Each structure stands twice: as C-alpha cells, then as structure tokens.
C-alpha cells in the first residue's frame, strides 16, 4: 500500500468499526483505548509546557500485532484527551514492518519523535533503524529518516529509543539482544540528535552483577528520582518464580546510582514493577517536577488473543496515569491526583467486611483501611484475597476458564482500587505494590466484600472522561 491507500484503509476502518468498539460493554469510560484495532505500548509521552502528549503503538486495521502506526492523543489535564492526526505510518523502506516504540523530546521548540523503524526480510531475519520525525504545521509529523543502524555484535532486535537531555548532551537507551541471545540495554550519547555514539551496555544479562536475565530487554527508560536512578525494562525470558514474574513477559526495574561522568550504572536485583496480569512497556516523562508513567494494560504472547473485545474489533487499553516516588529505596506508584476530579457521590462505611454493602457496576474507585484479612469478589471472574501478609489476585483464564493467580507480599493496611468496566488497578499501601488487570465478567456486575475483620471503606462513583 502507498501512503494514500494506507490512510484511506485506516479511515475506513475507523469509520466502520469505532461505534461498535465504543458501545462494547467492556470499553473503558475513562482509560485510553483504541477506537478500533490493537493498542500496545505508550510512546512519546511528554509535556510541552501546555499539553501532555501520549502516542501509542496502534494497528488500526485489525486486532493483530501487525502494521504498527503511532496514534496520538493530547491533554491539558491528564483526564480528557483529544485525538490528534495519526503521527507515523509504516510507509518507508526503513520502517515498512512497523513504526515501533520510542519517545519524544522538544528539540529547538519542535516536538520530535525518536522511534524504531522495523524491517523484516523473507528469510525471517530483521533489522532495525532508529529514526526521527518532527511535528509540522498541520499537527502531523514529517519523517527525517534513520539516524542509527544496528551496532556490531547485536541481532536485529535493537529498538525502543528513550531519549533525554542532560547538561546540553543527548542520551538514549535502547533495548537490545546480542548475538549470544542475551538481553541488554545500550547507552548512547550525542551532541545533536543526528549523530549517536555508543557508550556501551548499561545493564542486562551478565552486566552489573546480574546473571542470565533473559534473551531480550525491551522498552528501557532511565531516570533520576529523589536522588536515585531507576531503569525500567521489560526483560523477556527471565525465569518464572513461584510468586513473581508469572506473566508471559514481565515489566521490571533496577534501582541504583548513575554517574554522568563515568556513565556507569550500579544497581541491585530486578524488581517486578506491577504484579498484575496485564502490565507491560511502561514509559515515563518529567512534567513540572513530577515523574509520570503510563503503562500498557496488556502483555504480548500470553492469552491476549482470547480477549472477548476482539469480537467488537478492538483490544487493550492504557493504565491510568501514575506518579512515581521513592520511599525507603523502593519505587511507589500512585494514580495522579488529577484523577480525583472523576470522583462523585462519596460514601463511607465501617464495620465487619461480611456486612459491607455490595457495589453495583464497574465504574468506581475505593479506598479501604484494613485491620486483618479481606476478600473482594469482582463478579464471578476476579477475586482479591488478602491474608497472612500476602495479596492473591485470582482470575478466570479468558482461554479456558481456569483460575490463575498473581501475588504481592507485604503487610497490607491500605488499598486503593480503580475500576473501569473491564480493568482494575489495585494499589497496596500507598503504591508500594500495584496489580493491574483486565477482567471480563458476565452480566452480573457486583463487587462484594467478605471477611470477619473490620474495614473502613470509602467509595466513589467515577465520571466518564
Ligand atoms: C513491546 C514491543 C516493543 C516494540 C513494540 C512493537 O510491547 O514489542 O519492543 O517496539 O512492542 O509494537
């Protein structure tokens, strides 16, 4: 397809299918989701002084992982978002098999995208180009072409540039795989965006004290927070443990120190970033001093293709925007305070959990102070069980109906839960732990509380955004 044919196919797809998606009972009321087709990673998350921009991996033509474009939304308040012209189409030889993930920076006053051009060959091999595109007068983007090819010693899996500036120098981290199939994060440096110099491996399998840590690290993001440095990464192929890293691909972080003079990163072990069933490829930005994050509420290669929304032509959504902090050397995530504007009709209740009133409908937020064990049933498909210093989230598999479990350990005193039709985000103890999950209940939409211990409950209905 040439560019015009492609645009017309996308327009037709949106016009034919979006009403069906938006009317789906599982379609979110205030989370970001595609109007049709498949959404995956958040891309190019940034703040230009007036607007937040969020781009996203989008296949507008079907619910498959193909034909990746960059969709674009912008917002002044992180709550109401407007569609912007589609930003990138895979219509050049250097990005013909997908405009893959990347980031955005403001360069010389212009919003500039740094993304991966993915190219596949007939023999099954692939290559990748790191490319630039710059915003034009119409709100679309003009491609400037590739600025970096594959480094020596690495496979065709090198992608997802996250670019930032520090003291007039540009830096970039890239997800990569070396020729021995070890996952790495590469660090680059540049004095302008067109000429990058490889510094070396920032982290990865057999780097910085880690042993085998997977065959490919995707979507890296390095930033400073409260005097520490955090590297977010999605290390594919790490070992599943009894209670951690149970998704087909996990999202994790390393915490430590990074020195801009030696460009060395010292860090500890990989820590899971979100213990739920669906969370991947998070990206952050710094806005007015706050470190904000969006994640994809999905994971690749799991049971995603069994999700029932595919029947209505759409799949996946973003997480809510979250703010990050560090307390006692641990990363905390909390829903941004702006989301409180969605709250209405607060209700308070205190007593034994068994006596608590049910909540009807799946568009609510709640906070619970706990004084012991508690079970919360979300209809017949999802249950949160808190006892013995552990939270277990159980969900029926969309593939075969069997119960599956995810875990978070800690002495849980407080819960904040955000629910939006077919998604739930559970924050433990002020964000020390998070579980993000989709769930697709049958007709009955009730939340009920079970347990012999006391709870203090605050609930709000949430408005549409
Ligand atoms: C992560 C990822 C990225 C890639 C993009 C393609 O979900 O695999 O590594 O750039 O998705 O859509």
TrEMBL record:
Its EC number is 3.2.1.26. It is found in: Cytoplasm. Pathway: Glycan biosynthesis; sucrose metabolism. InterPro entries: ConA-like_dom_sf (IPR013320), GH32_Enzymes (IPR051214), Glyco_hydro_32 (IPR001362), Glyco_hydro_32_AS (IPR018053), Glyco_hydro_32_C (IPR013189), Glyco_hydro_32_N (IPR013148), Glyco_hydro_beta-prop_sf (IPR023296), Suc6P_hydrolase (IPR006232). Residues 412-446 form the Glycosyl hydrolase family 32 C-terminal domain. GO terms for molecular function: beta-fructofuranosidase activity. Belongs to the glycosyl hydrolase 32 family. It catalyses: Hydrolysis of terminal non-reducing beta-D-fructofuranoside residues in beta-D-fructofuranosides. It comes from Proteus penneri. This is Sucrose-6-phosphate hydrolase. Its main location: cytoplasm. Residues 31-335 form the Glycosyl hydrolase family 32 N-terminal domain. It is an enzyme of class 3 (hydrolase). Enables the bacterium to metabolize sucrose as a sole carbon source. SMART domains: Glyco_32. The keyword Endoplasmic reticulum does not apply. The lineage of its organism: Bacteria, Pseudomonadati, Pseudomonadota, Gammaproteobacteria, Enterobacterales. PROSITE patterns: GLYCOSYL_HYDROL_F32. Keywords: Carbohydrate metabolism, Cytoplasm, Glycosidase, Hydrolase.
